[in-house]
Amino acid sequence: MTCCDRGGGVTGKGNSVLHRAFRILKLFDPARVEMSLTEIAWAADLPLPTAYRITRELVDLGLLERNEQKVYRIGTSLWEIGVRSSHVLRLREVAMPFMEDLQVAVRQHTSLSILAAGEVLVLERLASHNEVPNISQIGGRLPIHATSPGLLMLAYSDPEFQESILARPLRRYTDRTVTSSAELRTILAEVRARRYAVADGTINPLGGGVATAIRDRADNVIAALSITYGLDEPVVQSVLPALVATARSISRAVSAQPQLSQSD
Hints:
By secondary structure, the chain is α+β, with helices and mostly antiparallel strands. The strands form 2 sheets. The chain has a 6-stranded antiparallel beta sheet with strand order 6-5-4-9-8-7, with helices on both faces. A 3-stranded antiparallel beta sheet has the order 1-3-2. It has 2 domains: about 15-80, Winged helix-like DNA-binding domain superfamily/Winged helix DNA-binding domain (Arc Repressor Mutant, subunit A); about 85-260, Beta-Lactamase, CATH 3.30.450.40. It is about 40% helix and about 20% strand.
């Protein structure tokens, strides 16, 4: 049995002070880098006094910053903690030289992604000068069922995780978004068979993507390398050899880094 404490105590599972603080921090993303206290309270579903008290403590800790206009943004202390995540940073550092060569070769948007809490987390992206909108943002998240890196990594995830995704409602983004669990299950089997994923017009009606796996020394899929293109350009077969070759090169480099192994 739990008590109701609007003053910041524990009010049930997932509603402790720590959970509330985490909910506030998670509000900030590439599309929303600054927020007022009122916006924070509304978005985090917190009473204004509670939001004020928690944000004040987060500012004191350096996890948030507050400017003269009383607008909040992510603080440098949180950034410092984030950059100590050696696994993610090292993966990006290892992949970057290969991604740069790939982007020059194919002249399309190129991205490196991992799975995080059931979504695609973009670690890096290299934009091309073509006219295709690049909806991915570094540090941003994308739906797992409607993007090529998401389909690729979901296809190689453990069965329990797959079933959890298949069991939940799948949001429709365009008329080509797969929202049927049966159809998605078939797509995942196809991805495993051909070892790459294609998602055309499933999140952006004007663009598509193709992704393949980056593997660690134990052959676990730890990330996805993807290319985004316009649907008016039939480029999948022309870019696929370079994409696969680059992913293999990154995988070999990753295998030489024990700390990047999923099993470590």
